[in-house]
Design a protein that fits this description.
Length: 235
């Protein structure tokens, strides 16, 4: 992917937003759950210190591809402090990003493990791990402002790759929150669904959950095809 100059001062603004996200306690149910998981831990990670806080986005400030997920996994991002890092969904996704030239390595297991995203930024519609991976509508809405502020800073984004129907709907709401008229008819999510901008093209992708990857509903080839499409649209 072509390298674009990073907007001056954006790194500091993203860092300030990250600090605000990490301190958020707006949703009592999510706060209780994320902290309970961090205390009780999974047996395989009993020796690790869990993050147990909201998760900010991360990646290249000059990103032209935005990868949008649902929320951190209880024992993935909620443990490591970075979305998709340290779980099976992330293993599948980062391998694809690496093959597409959007990441410098095919796996990420913890913060500061050398992972760098190139021309890509990754974030989530909801920043805390929700029970059963199902945020309540009020929790979704409480988190929406973080996504609006984050994406408003990433002015070079040309493609939003939505991992699952929840992310697709979040991106449609985000589009309106950024000042663009709602799309009519409202585009439906599907794997390979594509909706042109402005301000960016939406691409739909099945979520890389084990439910989808272990059953073959989402294969590496299917992910590669969509990532290649995202890179082409972002060029």
């Amino acid at each position: 992917m072509t390298s674009y100059p990073k907007p001056v001062g954006l790194g500091h603004r993203l860092e300030a937003l990250e600090a605000a996200v990490v301190d958020c306690r707006r949703c009592p149910r999510l706060v209780d759950w994320r902290e309970q998981v961090a205390r009780e831990k999974r047996a395989a990670f009993r020796e690790e210190e869990y993050w147990g806080r909201p998760i900010p986005g991360f990646g290249d400030p000059a990103a032209r591809v935005l990868v949008l997920g649902l929320a951190p996994a209880a024992h993935g991002g909620n443990r490591t402090g970075r979305i998709f890092t340290g779980d099976r969904s992330g293993d599948f996704l980062f391998a694809g990003l690496y093959r597409a030239g959007l990441a410098n390595q095919p796996k990420s297991v913890r913060l500061r493990d050398g992972l760098e995203l190139r021309g890509c930024f990754m974030t989530a519609a909801v920043r805390c791990a929700p029970p059963a991976n199902k945020p309540l509508p009020a929790e979704r809405d409480n988190c929406a402002g973080w996504l609006v502020r984050e994406v408003a800073m990433l002015g070079l984004v040309r493609v939003v790759l939505c991992l699952g129907a929840f992310a697709w709907e979040a991106a449609l709401r985000l589009r309106v929150a950024l000042g663009h008229p709602p799309l009519r008819p409202r585009p439906r999510f599907g794997h390979g669904a594509e909706e042109p901008g402005p301000p960016w093209t939406l691409l739909g992708c099945f979520h890389p959950s084990q439910q989808n990857t272990f059953t073959g509903k989402l294969t590496p080839a299917m992910l590669d095809a969509l990532l290649a499409r995202a890179v082409a649209l972002a060029a």
